[in-house]
Design goal:
Its main location: membrane. With about 600 residues, the chain is of the alpha/beta class. It has two domains: about 5-315, ABC transporter involved in vitamin B12 uptake, BtuC, CATH 1.10.3470; about 335-595, P-loop containing nucleotide triphosphate hydrolases (Rossmann fold, 3-Layer(aba) Sandwich). It has helices at about 5-25, 30-55, 60-80, 85-105, 110-130, 135, 155-180, 180-190, 195-200, 205-230, 240-255, 260-275, 280-295, 300-315, 385-395, 415-425, 440-445, 455-465, 470-485, 500-510, 530-545, 555-565, 580-585, 590-595, and strands spanning about 140-145, 150, 150-155, 230-235, 345-360, 360-370, 375-380, 400-405, 410, 425, 515-520, 550-555, 565-570, 575-580. Bound molecules: adenosine-5'-triphosphate (ATP).
């Protein structure tokens, strides 16, 4: 996408909100009111896209969070005479606290358990507001004074529309930057595949907490914006039905883009105006709409519009993978052979005396192995031998009971998986773990490993204006994609690639951070026979050109034998043989253990 188009795409949702505001100003009072309330719902919808769409966390607490924003700004104005803008800022703060409080238990649960957690928060909040009568006016409600800013008292419907429209456009702009930028992409990665996300420096709990906080800040802000316009605040308006209605915004609009929030929030808020003749059946209509969307258009209105546009352009099927690109050098695959082991290469990864029990089962028993700098070491063994357990201990996804795992002298056992990338260790996965909804380019950018929450927020701002961080990240990622022959597919959603290309994408993601060691977990599992030799050539080329060491767990013995310079064989949790592939595979004990051959015969 060209730079002006990228900027315009980032600004477009906020411009639509401003456009709706300007279009509403000449209208009568009632349409002005409807548009103002619809714009507030757009802010709610866009905020919920962050939590419900990108982070895939269900919430039934949006009503209470909106109430928290509304009551914060209003009570400060009523009881302390706090100016409107400071009240709005306070609503952002209480919204953030509410999001953080929900996240404390919320990040540990998913699905119906999370729904229950948020429902409890919702109920407790509404009960507290109702019972704190002297402060909040209780169930009877409390009158909110007209806000005033810099001497301008906001009274008329036009004034309210202008105020709400401008501030909402700002909120939508901020949310757009976050959703479209590195923060939104990393959040989708965290929600899509926690293990892969953690392996590339994305702290899943930190991102989910940030999603709860950002989403709650947006919803509370919307509550504070709307409060003076609705004039009387009462707790029942923010009850569980309101929460359910708000949850429908991203579901109906579309969960993965800010436009879903706009279409869902704005659309569902305006729809009742068109349903007035059948007002008694409104709720039935809404329920049916949600069911129809979930069943037939899980991508919501956004998906429906996208399909329509593609159909008009004559591409009804959406993005498709182009014919398989040739990997540079693949033609010469058969000629690529492992280099001899680097003479006297220093040990890079050292595993010593590692133990792991599962109950009475001794799954890893005093295991040891060494991968030298620039070496390619294979780990083989029959099913259940303990290879995956040992691999997971090395990659940090399984704790060891005893032993030592050191990388270039640094002990790894105390490090979280996401911290290993900083040392220069990356990995691929037995079951390919690309982030399917993100483009190949974004998958590889995540592989750079600079994925802390604050860094991603900074990167999101940089991406909006295509600053130097973005240019560098894209340049490095494109180079890595080029190295594996996928540069032409950079913009393609990773989930649309063939399995062989997803394996290559994983390799690009693993090499982009310039690691010193890649842990390859069954790299040719499920790959078509014809592509295995290409992948072997690719790995050998990467090893030779970038001097990246590799530890490979694999069942495909011919592949391992032609890729690796040294092998360890596991049997019943222990390392039972090691040496060059030719020597190891020729050992009678290994043939018996691995291939079940009768050595005595
Ligand atoms: N989380 C777990 N809980 C209990 N037992 C486990 C667990 N993970 C592995 N095991 C057991 O530990 C032993 C070693 O399993 P592991 O998966 O490490 O072997 P493997 O060599 O990788 O096998 P495969 O090649 O089939 O993947 C097996 O008996 C397995 O059933």
């Amino acid at each position: 996408m060209s730079e002006p188009r990228r900027l315009l795409a980032g600004l477009a949702p906020a411009l639509v909100v401003l456009g709706a505001t300007l279009a509403g100003l000449p209208l009568d009072n009632y349409p002005k009111y409807v548009i103002a309330i619809a714009i507030v719902s757009i802010v709610v919808g866009a905020s919920l896209v962050v939590l419900v769409g990108l982070a895939r966390c269900i919430t039934l607490a949006a009503g209470s969070v909106m109430a928290i924003g509304a009551y914060t700004s209003s009570l400060l104005a009523i009881h302390l005479g706090v100016p409107y803008l400071i009240g709005l800022a306070a609503a952002l703060l209480t919204g953030a606290i509410a999001g953080w409080l929900i996240a404390l238990p919320g990040t540990r649960f998913r699905g119906h358990n999370l729904a229950m957690v948020t429902l409890v928060f919702q109920s407790v909040c509404i009960i507290l507001i109702r019972e704190a009568k002297t402060l909040t006016g209780g169930a009877e409600g409390i009158h909110v004074p007209a806000p005033s800013l810099f001497g301008w008292t906001v009274r008329s419907d036009g004034d309210f529309l202008l105020l709400i429209g401008v501030l909402s456009a700002l909120a939508v702009l901020v949310l757009t930057v976050l959703v479209r930028g590195a923060f939104g992409k990393n959040l989708q990665a965290a929600a899509g595949n926690e293990v892969a996300a953690e392996a590339f420096g994305i702290s899943v709990p930190a991102y989910l907490t940030a999603a709860f906080v950002i989403s709650s800040v947006g919803v509370a802000f919307a509550g504070a914006l709307a409060a003076p316009r609705v004039r009387i605040l009462d707790p029942e308006s923010y009850g569980v039905m309101a929460s359910i209605f708000m949850l429908a915004y991203p579901i109906v609009g579309g969960m993965h883009s800010i436009w879903g929030g706009l279409l869902g929030g704005g659309g569902l808020r305006v729809l009742p105006e068109f349903l007035r003749p059948v007002a008694d059946y409104q709720e039935l209509f809404f329920a049916s709409l949600v069911i129809v969307v979930v069943m037939f258009f899980p991508g919501g209105f956004v998906e429906l519009i996208r399909r329509g546009v593609l159909a008009l352009r004559g591409h009804p099927a959406g993005p498709r993978e182009a014919p398989q690109p040739a990997v540079a050098g693949a033609q010469a695959a058969a000629a690529v052979t492992p280099l001899p082991a680097p003479d006297g290469a220093a040990p890079l990864l050292v595993v010593e005396g590692v133990d792991r029990h599962f109950g009475a089962l001794h799954a890893v028993n005093a295991a040891h192995l060494t991968v030298p700098v620039g070496g390619i070491h294979g780990l083989i063994g029959p099913n259940g031998a303990g290879k995956t357990s040992l691999f997971n201990i090395v990659s940090g996804f399984l704790a060891a009971d005893a032993g030592r795992v050191a990388f270039d002298g640094t002990s790894l056992l105390e490090l979280a998986p996401r911290d290993r990338i900083r040392l220069g260790i990356t990995r691929t996965f037995q079951h390919v773990a690309v982030f399917g909804q993100l483009s190949c380019l974004d998958n590889v950018i995540i592989g750079r490993g600079r994925n802390g929450v604050l860094a991603a927020i900074g990167q999101s701002v940089d991406e909006m204006r295509s600053g130097p961080l973005t240019a560098r990240a894209r340049g490095e990622a494109l180079a890595a994609l080029d190295a594996v022959g996928l540069a032409d597919l950079a913009g393609m959603p990773a989930g649309a690639l063939s399995l062989g290309n997803q394996r290559r994408l994983e390799i690009a993601r693993a090499i982009v951070s310039d690691p010193r060691l890649i842990l390859l977990d069954e790299p040719v599992s499920g790959v078509a026979e014809a592509e295995i030799e290409e992948l072997r050539a690719l790995l050998l080329r990467i090893n030779a050109e970038r001097r990246i060491a590799m530890l490979v767990v694999e069942h495909n013995i011919p592949f391992v034998a032609r890729l690796c310079r040294s092998l360890s064989v596991m049997g019943a949790g222990a390392i039972v043989a090691e040496g060059t592939p030719a020597d190891v595979i020729a050992m009678p004990a290994v043939r018996q253990l691995y291939f079940g051959e009768d050595v005595a015969a």
